[in-house]
Amino acid sequence: MTLQESQPPTAASVGRSLTEPDPQLAGRYKLDRIFEIAALASIIVALVVLAVLMFDVLVDGLPRLNWQFISNFASRKPDQAGIKAALFGTIWLLGTTAAIAFPVGVGAGIFLEEFAADSRLAKLIEINIANLAGVPSIIYGLLGLQVFVRVLEPITKGRTILAGALTLALLILPIIIVATREALRAIPQSLRQAGYALGATRWQTIREQVLPLALPGILTGTILALSRAIGETAPLITIGALTFIAFLPSGFQDSFTALPIQIYNWVSRPQKEFHELAAAGIIVLMIVLLSMNAGAIFLRNKFQRER
Q1: Which of the two ends of the chain, N or C, has the fewest CB atoms closer than 10 A to its terminal CB?
Q2: Mapping DSSP to helix (H, G, I), strand (E, B) and coil, where does residue 187 land?
C-alpha cells in the first residue's frame, strides 16, 4: 500500500461525495412524488363524485323536505307520504343496538386486551374477530332471521325492533371490539405499572385510570360503528322489516321500519314523485348520521379536556 492510498479522505473529496446526487435516491424521490400525485388525484375524484351525488340528492329532495314530510306516515299517494314511522323506528333501532353492542363490545375488548393470556385460543379469537369485520351484512341478516326471529321468537316476538337490534349489534360488535383494543393499547404501560405499584388490582387500575383515558377513542369507534349500522338495508330486509307502517313503535317487541327500508321502497317505485321522496329521505338520513358524528366529536373533546 502506498502513502497516497493510506491517506484519509480530504474535506474536498468528502464535499464532492456529498454534493453528487445518488441515482437511487433520486429514483425514490420520483416514486414518492408519483404516489403523492396519485393519492391526491384519488381524493379529488372521490370528492367530485360525492359532490355530484350530493348536489343531485339536494336538488331532488329539498323541495319535498318540509314538516308535513316529517310528520306524516307512509302512504301510497306521493303528496301525502311521509317518513315519521321510519324516522322513529330508526331512533328506536339505533338506541337498542347501542344499548346491546356497547357494553358487550367494550367488555370483550377489555378482556382480550388486558386480561386474556397470550395463548393460541386468544390469537384464534382475534383472527375471527378481524374476519367477522369483513363479513357481508347479508350473512348477519340470515343469521338474525334464523336465530333471533325464529329460534328466539318467544323472547323477540318475531320480526320486531329487538330482533333487528340484535342483528345489527352482531354486525358492529367486531368494530367496537377492535376500536376498544386500539384505544386501550394507546395508553402507556407505565400508567398501569404505577397503579400496581400503589397496590391497586388490575381491574381497579383499568377502571379508574386506563378506561377513562381510553374512553374518547372507544366512543368514537362506537359512533362510527353505529354510523355503519344506520345505513344497512340488507339485514333488515332479510329479517323482514316492514315497508309500510302506519303507527309508531311503543316497545322493543313492536314491528318497525327504518329509514333505509323506506328509502329503498320509494326508489324501487317507477313514479318520479317517489324518487323525490327517496331523495328527501336520504337528506334526513344524512342529518341523523351527521348528528351522531357531531355527538361523537363533542364527547371525545369533552373527555379529552377532562383528562
Answers
A1: N
A2: coil
10 Å CB burial of residue 257 (0-12, 13-18, 19+) is buried
* Phi, then psi, of 219 in degrees rounded to 5: -65, -40
Q: Which residues of the chain have pLDDT under 50?
A: 1, 3-4, 18
Round the average pLDDT of the chain to a whole number and report it.
83
C-alpha to C-alpha distances, 227 to 70, 277, 287, nearest whole angstrom: 21, 22, 12
In sequence order, which residues have a C-beta less than 8 Å from that of residue 231 and are 6 or more positions away? Answer: 260, 285, 289
**pLDDT tens sequence across 104-163:** 999 999 998 888 877 788 788 888 888 887 788 888 888 888 898 888 888 888 888 889
* Rounded Cα gap, residues 207 and 187, in angstroms: 13
SS3 for 260-297, per residue? Answer: HHHHHHHHCCCCHHHHHHHHHHHHHHHHHHHHHHHHHH
What residue has cell string 323541495?
Answer: 63
Structure confidence by residue, pLDDT tens digits, 31-52 = 888 999 999 999 999 999 999 9
| C-alpha to C-alpha distances, 66 to 71, 82, 153, nearest whole angstrom | 9, 10, 39
